[in-house]
Specification:
With 50 residues, the chain is an alpha+beta fold. It contains two helices and four strands, in the order E-E-E-E-H-H. The protein has a domain at 21-50. Helix content is 26%, strand content 30%. Strands 1-2 form a two-stranded antiparallel sheet. Strand 3 and strand 4 form a beta hairpin. The protein starts with a strand and ends with a helix.
Length: 50
């Protein structure tokens, strides 16, 4: 997603962008298939349990 940042006169001063996703805090990487984990919060607990 891109968002233009404009001066008061309307000219574009900069563009900011970002990527949305689910971050695995242990590996600091985006989760490849986040939808199943987001649909069922207990799914991660079941898959990461010893």
């Amino acid at each position: 997603m891109r968002h233009p940042l404009r001066n008061l006169d309307g000219t574009v001063a900069a563009e900011a962008g970002h990527v949305s996703g689910l971050l695995n805090l242990a590996t600091r990487r985006l989760v490849t298939r986040p939808r199943p984990r987001m649909a069922d919060p207990s799914a991660q607990a079941r898959t990461s349990a010893p």
